[in-house]
Design brief:
Blueprint lengths: L1 H6 L2 H17 L1 H8 L4 H24 L2 H4 L22 H24 L4 H7 L2 H21 L10 H45 L3 H38 L1
Length: 246
């Protein structure tokens, strides 16, 4: 049972969820502002980006296979090695849905990046160091996966020491797999976002008046959000003082 868990999708998804969820939480204000853009069509794009990315994550976790998807970025002819656990191949129709959700997610996120005039430096990193990391560490994680594959019999009746060492190894491997998944996504994002950023920045960038209106709206909402947070803290403080006095 422990082996089935380690060989499955869920541990990888949990690491991805922790990383992406942590980033989203830290940037929740920016995400909220983008989803409430003064221009309705851009607000829709932002919501599509959030929803499609979440759906892609849930879909792959439940109905596809992260390791098999990483087979698309291994050296030609070695796709069979992408999943050493030899899980059942995902049916074509389910895989097509995964790829469609991925495409919608990447394109919509890239559009939002262009809309908010994101940094060119980050895109250059996404197209240089990031794919190098993804390709290199994908090969490393295949070897690590093969080691875990060999631990199947050791996990049938493991000693505490054996189970601990294998779990420690597996945890590090899941971090690597999650990192490869996310960097592969960022590589696709960079490929799409760079031309969109150039086009938007040179031809469709908002006029100064429109940009000022957007920033003014953002600042107003940020002030309201801070005021609400401050009010909540003050209220809790008053209640706490009253409780202490009683």
């Amino acid at each position: 049972m422990l082996y089935d868990f380690l060989a499955g999708n869920l541990p990888i998804s949990l690491v991805i969820l922790a990383a992406v969820g942590g980033w989203a939480y830290r940037n929740r204000s920016s995400i909220s502002l983008a989803m409430n853009d003064p221009q309705r069509h851009w607000a829709i794009v932002a919501r599509v980006a959030v929803i499609s990315t979440a759906l892609f994550f849930v879909w792959v976790t439940a109905l596809d296979n992260w390791r098999q998807l990483l087979g698309y970025i291994v050296v030609t002819g070695r796709q069979f090695a992408a999943d050493p656990f030899e899980a059942a191949t995902t049916p074509d129709m389910l895989r097509y849905v995964s790829l469609a959700l991925l495409a919608v997610s990447v394109i919509s996120v890239a559009l939002m990046y262009a809309r908010h005039l994101g940094s060119y430096a980050f895109l250059i990193i996404c197209l240089t160091f990031v794919p190098l990391f993804a390709l290199t560490f994908n090969e490393i994680r295949i070897s690590a996966d093969a080691f875990l594959r060999l631990s199947e019999f050791a996990l049938e009746n493991p000693s505490l020491l054996d189970a601990g060492s294998i779990l420690f190894w597996a945890a590090g491997m899941f971090v690597i797999i999650a990192a490869v998944v996310m960097t592969a996504y960022l590589t696709l994002f960079g490929l799409v976002a760079l031309p969109l950023r150039i086009i938007y920045g040179t031809t469709v960038a908002p006029k100064k008046e429109e940009l000022a209106q957007i920033f003014k709206s953002y600042e107003r909402r940020a002030r309201e959000s801070r005021r609400e947070d401050a009010g909540g803290h003050d209220g809790s403080g008053v209640n706490g003082d009253a409780t202490a006095r009683s």
